[in-house]
Amino acid sequence: MHSTTSSLPTTDVVLIGAGIMSATLGLMLKELDPTLTITIFERLDVAAAESSDAWNNAGTGHSAFCELNYTPERPDGSIDISKALSIAEQFEQSKQFWAFLTEKYDVKEIQRFINHIPHMSFVMGRENVEFLRKRHAALTASALFKGMKFSEDQAEIADWMPLVMDGRDPDQTVAATRMDLGTDVNFGSLTRGMFYLLQEKPGVTLHFHHEVDKLHHNADGSWRVKTENLQNGQETETRARFVFIGAGGGSLPLLEKSHIPEAAGYGGFPVSGQWLRCVNPAVIARHDAKVYGKASVGSPPMSVPHLDTRVIDGEKQLLFGPYAGFSTKFLKTGSYFDLPASIQFGNVKPMIMAGLKNLSLTKYLIQQVRQSPNDRLAALREYLPEAQAQDWELAIAGQRVQVIKKDKKQGGVLEFGTEVVTAADGTIAALLGASPGASTAVSIMLGLVQRCFPAQSATPEWQARFREMVPTFGHTLADEPELVNQTRTRTSTLLDLVTPEQLGV
Ligand SMILES: Cc1cc2nc3c(=O)[nH]c(=O)nc-3n(C[C@H](O)[C@H](O)[C@H](O)COP(=O)(O)OP(=O)(O)OC[C@H]3O[C@@H](n4cnc5c(N)ncnc54)[C@H](O)[C@@H]3O)c2cc1C
Fold first, then answer.
1. What cofactor is needed (predicted)?
2. Residue of 239, 247, 271, 384 with fewest CB within 10 Å of its CB?
């Protein structure tokens, strides 16, 4: 049912994908310049149905309070907290932007997406306990981590996380940290709320069922974006001055289609995930924390086991996982041809080299894929010794595509973070990778805007608007303890941050 290509009106900005990244960039750009026209294309029938959906991610407001992989131990035994400081600061920027939105726009769609859930780390064994003690000492020297508690006392830990301590050997060496300021975020409802706001603005059009399949760079620097309407096969073309590829797992194939030199050598490695979701309300009621453990040796950072209290659509939930898996799809709703189709002359070497350097990951994924329900229960019982199989059901999480890139020394490396790839002329940018992800969307977009709109960003008008959206913009929170207190007090009030008990769930 193919018809001829029609043209949509020329637009200033095209956003590809209706996930949290496009939502954040779109709103930020409209605040900076309300006259901008923005066209958004989304292949599905709703916003935030891939990684940004609440059930597809862990909903942790990543602040480095509990994620042990953000504080690696150096060879001399000291703890490197630089990444933790940066992630904590980035999450404070996100909260400020969300607080700005809730203060400026009184929209019910954007309320109650964030709640206080204490963030805890839990470790077993003498070596890990020593690591946690040193980590706690290093972090609490910074105002960003003030208030974090450390305990080796089984009774106190049982008070913090009763399910984790019930039935545990009283002689086992364990330790935990607790940070009450931790949060759980429903990124799906936040994203849908942000698109609601965006669509209300003049000059913004959102097209669902529209899959972008070609990108062409015109001689005048603008872009021709070709889409197919997946409902009727109609093809359209849109001309844009700036394109953001915010297609989550679908970003890599589109970046390749842009043919910008900066895209050369990038590849992607998909990792799927599964959770155990608790279905027993009595068990759910007994846990009020996000408890992160330590990834076992050789396993990738995204496999860190965690037991998460969530608040989704007003209901308290409990998840354990993620269990990793392997699928050649780049999106949960993608195609098994995604991975093979992404392999090109320019990235085949980095992909092979990264594969050879990461054989332990391959081994880990094979072992994870082969897990039986009993294996999964055994992994859960390391954290919940008294867990019962009938209280938990398997659920499929979102798909992540880890970044592979060229490396002079090693030929190719596998990265576990996010990466923004920008054309030299600033007319197109793509976001690859998935971690720390949605929590750092605001800081990622502040950086992207300054890189792609350098002249406007330097003007006093845009600088003032950056500070209006994110009052600590231009500051380094780790160096300004007073500002940490100020911003946390302000965002807590504006976001009406409460605990699930206060919410009555
Ligand atoms: C298992 C798991 C756990 C996670 N846990 C956390 C966490 O606890 N905290 C946290 O902060 N982050 C977490 N993340 C990461 C976070 O979910 C992602 O970083 C974030 O949601 C990515 O947003 P996005 O907008 O880039 O992509 P997405 O939300 O995936 O949106 C991309 C959109 O683009 C659309 N699209 C794709 N291709 C095309 C095309 N060709 N044309 C048109 N549309 C297209 C898709 O349909 C989709 O709607 C987790 C991710 C996973 C998978």
1. FAD
2. 239
How far does residue 50's CA lie from ligand 1's centre (Å)?
5
Kindly state the tokens that stand for 212: 């972008």
State pLDDT tens for residues 60-89.
Answer: 999 999 999 999 999 999 999 999 999 999
296 in any annotated domain: yes
Residue 248 region by backbone torsions, left for phi larger than 0, else alpha for psi between -120 and 50, else beta: left
Q: Is it the case that residue 481 has pLDDT exceeding 80?
A: yes
The total of other beta-carbon atoms located within 10 Å of residue 470's CB is: 23
Distance 249 CA to ligand 1 centre (A): 7
Pairwise CA distance, residues 82 & 487, whole Å = 21
Is the pLDDT at 431 greater than 70? The verdict is yes
Q: How far is the CA of 29 from the centre of ligand 1 (A)?
A: 20
Residue 308 Cβ inside 6 Å of ligand 1? The answer reads no
Residues 6+ apart with CB under 8 A from 332: 50, 51, 56, 272, 396, 398, 399
- The lowest-confidence range among 47-61, 116-130, 320-334 is 320-334
pLDDT band of 1, cuts 50, 70, 90:
very low
CB of residue 58 inside a 6 A radius of ligand 1: yes
Number of domains observed in the structure of the chain: 1
Backbone angles phi, psi at 438, to 5 degrees: -55, -35
Give the Å distances, CA to CA, from 156 to 149, 152, 175: 11, 8, 10
| pTM confidence score | 0.94
∠ CA 478-479-484, nearest 5°, is 60
Do the strands 38-41 and 290-292 form a parallel or antiparallel pair, or are they unpaired?
A: unpaired
Buried-state track 206-226, b at ≥16 Cβ within 10 A, e below 16: bbbbbbbeebebeeeebbbbb
Across 47-54, average pLDDT: 96
Check whether 479 has a pLDDT greater than 80. yes
- Say if 459 falls within a structural domain: no
Q: How many CB atoms lie within 10 A of CB 21?
A: 28
Position 106 confidence tier, pLDDT thresholds 50, 70, 90? confident
* CA–CA dist 325, 306 (Å, integer): 16
The rounded mean pLDDT for the chain is 92
Assigned domain for 283 exists: yes
Per-residue tokens: 56: 């597809």
Q: What is the dihedral of CA 46, 48, 54, 57, to 10 degrees?
A: 140
Domain that holds residue 319: 266-419
Helix (H) or strand (E) holding 100: helix 82-104
Q: Whose CA is nearest to atom 1 of ligand 1?
A: 57
The response to whether residue 71 sits with its C-beta less than 6 Å from ligand 1 reads no
Domain annotation covers residue 274: yes
- Condensed to tens digits (0 to 9), the pLDDT of residues 157-183 reads 999 999 999 999 999 999 999 999 999
